[in-house]
Write the structure tokens for this entry.
Amino acid sequence: MEPIRNIGILTAGGDCGGLNAVVRAAAKIAVARNIGAYIIPSGYAGLYNLVDYDELVRLDDERIDHVHSSFAGSEAGHSRVKISKIKNPDKYRRILDGLKKFDIGGLVISGGDDTGSVMVDLTENGIPCVHAPKTMDLDLHTYSVGGDSAINKIAHFVNEIQTTGKTHNRIMVVEVFGRYTGHTAFRGGVASDADCILIPEIPVDFDVVYDHMKRHYTRRILRSDLRSGTYTIVVAEGIRDDKGNLFADGSASLDSFGHVKLAGAGRYVRQCLEDRLRRDEEIERFLKQVGMYVPDVFTSPEVREVVPGHLVRSGSTFAYDVNFGKEAGAAAVLLLLQGFSGVTVLSVNGGEIRYISTKEAIRRREVDLRLVSFYEQMDICFGRIPVPCTPLFAEGPGVQDRVY
């Protein structure tokens, strides 16, 4: 194997915090070892078209100064392209020719499960790659850049929305990302003292949600000297009802990875609660008791849904993601230089770089329902009848890789 003289850095999939930290650290450690570091723009689209480029941006010390780790996103740019679906039978040869043109001997690729699946495909076709894990959904089998930043932002927005909820005595529903797993909704909801957290792993029983909401909402207002109270629900976009149905935008076409656009989970939760509130005779008596009922004007509490959307993955990066991003980016370069390919950085513990097969890393990891049961003991609703939790006890110490 010839020594690597230059590496290519690309990012793909969804944007999130920590990506620029990966880029910066990968370039920094390459430069320190007299290895050229080049940005391959626009993700896999740029990689496919690399052979047609006249030049690439080289990340020398001066250019690296302009790659800020706190920037939540990637200056390398993204695209959603699945290489294996490109009809050109010479697509892998085309990519290899592009790498040869710029004398790039290996790739540092940062992305999630879709990005990782393409990386596995590239590796199997003779293209050396190491994966720096990135996904704010946290559904890989390792911590991934973007997760902590998204969780902090979800928690911030949910905390903020409670002020308008309390001012107007509203039930507030906050819809966040989470197509297949609910890690960020779960952790963000817990961190913000949300009353109810709905995640894809648990089909929603809306009667359970309504009973929990009614009990806490009415109690707070009845016991408030100013008759003020709210109830907060965090819902992942990929929740399912008790029949297993998703709430998807039926008008949207599939993307290159076969995913439909999800839309309307928060709206559906709002409608389910509004319908039950209107039909509940006890709610009318409650509103009269607290002096809120006005015939034909205010006959049931308001339910509002809010969708912060891409705000939770944009803006600035939190410190943990900067740290992990730098470790993952630098470790990916060192693994490449040692001849590794088709692996994902797991962690850097002291001087030890740990890695796993990317095929293993991108297997979907769901929220541990035992932990959900643990939080149900604290009277957080997860859209089901609480499941008893009998914890086990184990004596430490021990070191565990951080996986939410």
Observations:
- The longest helix spans residues 147-168.
- Residues 249-253 have pLDDT under 50 and may be disordered.
- The first strand starts at residue 6 and ends at 11.
